[in-house]
Amino acid sequence: MDLMNPVDLQQQQILQMLSQASKVLLIVHKVPDGDCLGSVSAMLTRLRGQGLQAIAYCDDPVPDSYRFLPAMDQVFQASTIPEFTPELVIVIDCADEGRIGDGSRFLQGQAPVINIDHHVGNSQFGHINWVDSQAAACGEMIYRLCTTASWHITDDMATAIYTSLMTDTGSFQYANTTPQTLRLAADLREMGARTDEIREKVFESRPRAFVNLLAQILPTLEVSDDGRVASLTVTREAMVQAGASEGDCDGLINYPRFLAGVQVALLFKEAGEEIFRVGFRSKGNIDVYAIARQFGGGGHRKASGCTLSGTLAEVKQQVLGAVRSSLEPLEIPT
Amino acid sequence: MDLMNPVDLQQQQILQMLSQASKVLLIVHKVPDGDCLGSVSAMLTRLRGQGLQAIAYCDDPVPDSYRFLPAMDQVFQASTIPEFTPELVIVIDCADEGRIGDGSRFLQGQAPVINIDHHVGNSQFGHINWVDSQAAACGEMIYRLCTTASWHITDDMATAIYTSLMTDTGSFQYANTTPQTLRLAADLREMGARTDEIREKVFESRPRAFVNLLAQILPTLEVSDDGRVASLTVTREAMVQAGASEGDCDGLINYPRFLAGVQVALLFKEAGEEIFRVGFRSKGNIDVYAIARQFGGGGHRKASGCTLSGTLAEVKQQVLGAVRSSLEPLEIPT
Predict the structure, then answer these.
(1) CB count, 10 Å around CB of B122?
(2) Tens-of-pLDDT digits for all 334 residues of chain A?
(3) Structure ipTM
(4) Domains and CATH numbers, chain B
(5) Residue B219 is nearest to which of A180, A183, A215, comparing CB atoms?
(6) Which of A173, A203, A221 is closest, CB to CB, to B203?
(7) Is the CB of residue B181 less than 8 Å from the CB of residue B136?
(8) CA A185 to CA A177: how far, in whole Å?
């Protein structure tokens, strides 16, 4: 028998705690995405299927594009959650308690807290912390947990886990995609993952308001003289004009990002009276986390964000100044 | 020893012919894409590496986004191709001779013609026809040829074949993606495929003119009352205004396509005085090939195109009429 590595040990601990609990609360992060929802969908499907009382909490409602996932009717918000005293709390895809939002009150009870995550800077807030920053998505970890437990993976569970992988890797495009991720995706297809449904619901069900918003926003494109910095600006007026909601802003930052030569892409989004949320994406070697951190923001090297006060012009000047100082000087042709 | 299946036999024939030829001409289709260019890049790299004289022909120049592929300086057009009498001609990713364009003159010589393709309706125009409609991309077939030949796959070849897979499957999103495709992608990553480079060059190097064009075109979005048909229109004036070229129209049809509820997406593109090219995409069960064929067009069930004469209003009326008759009647709520 092989010696158990530490990761396996954590999985064994989690499975043992699950075997002793009959009421389990799963928690995912605010503004939920395909990874945390796919992961929680697979877990809810499994745990409820084996007769446990399992429900999930999320600060925000499940976006329309993820409602097709199994068991999403068991994901509650603060106002809808039934009376429930969990014997075990499992938090998925949250780097720290701040990501849980108001749900962090569930961490104060008697129930032990299991923290399952793949973010580099996880704050280890659980009693058991299973953090694997090599995993492309939490869905990959949930799959490993299923394998360790010898749980049969149903087509519903395969669909949920595939959704995690597909969304957190940008359809297997981002650098976090490993050979292991792709082989797992292949296995999940063979286990019955409904990949056509995932593609259609997640990537091909944009509301018309998104196209309207894009049409409003693209003319705000600004590119620096050297072509290395590009930005878009979303005002509240543009949102109203387009009939758009928060979710429709998803992916807007990709438009400056995918321009040839751009190293840093920015999205300035009016969040309130003289308050702007700034999104940063890096396409080269620039560490945008280091820039966002200067303004009290967070994220990681390739994708970060922060919030700033001031007029749009003031905010732009501050942010562009910081971005410019982080760029390598251009070589002057001799 | 296993009995050889017919596909293996064709590969053996191809490898035998390659072993007897010292001058090989590879041909790919007009308006070349990532699949045919990735496939030809892998073949050129291998054949030239083993000392053969191998060059490639394409009617159109290699788009900027694919120039990073190895050996692209050996892909010539009619005006640039050196004097060359091939002993063997290999045509890749062409369903029929029409797709080769002016290059079809190379099929009239003494050299035997090998036809490697994955389109359903391939016209079998070669002396050897290796057509596998189950392959997600020709790159998958080239990989199998390498394996059959026991050729070492260099990181350059892996990069080229990965580009084929990634582009012809829409980043592993389309229904042609199989478990085998994903496992092959995993293997290619381990063989050194430069996936970050592929992503950046192919998907993240759009010119600014593309964003300008998109901003011009999105306001032309029209959606039918029942939400099942959506279209965009590209006029020559919009192209000029945006400073855009033909290649910048790539992907525009995705914007009506990814709207929720849309079953048929259309792109009307002004190609000349009262001449319009019409692109069709199907998201549901509608066979858009059947529609395009009514107008003398071609393609397949999910993606087709045709060319029509008339004013924009006339062309729209004709096409929308045909699309409407192909839609199932809506159920009337009782």
Answers:
(1) 20
(2) 445 566 688 999 999 999 999 999 999 999 899 999 999 999 999 999 999 999 999 999 999 999 999 999 999 999 999 999 999 999 999 999 999 999 999 999 999 999 999 998 899 999 999 999 999 999 999 999 999 999 999 999 999 999 999 999 999 998 899 999 999 999 999 999 999 999 999 999 999 999 999 999 999 999 999 999 999 999 999 999 999 988 889 889 999 999 999 999 999 999 999 999 999 999 888 999 999 999 999 878 888 999 999 999 999 999 999 999 999 876 665 5
(3) 0.89
(4) 6-203 (3.90.1640.10), 208-326 (3.10.310.30)
(5) A215
(6) A173
(7) yes
(8) 11
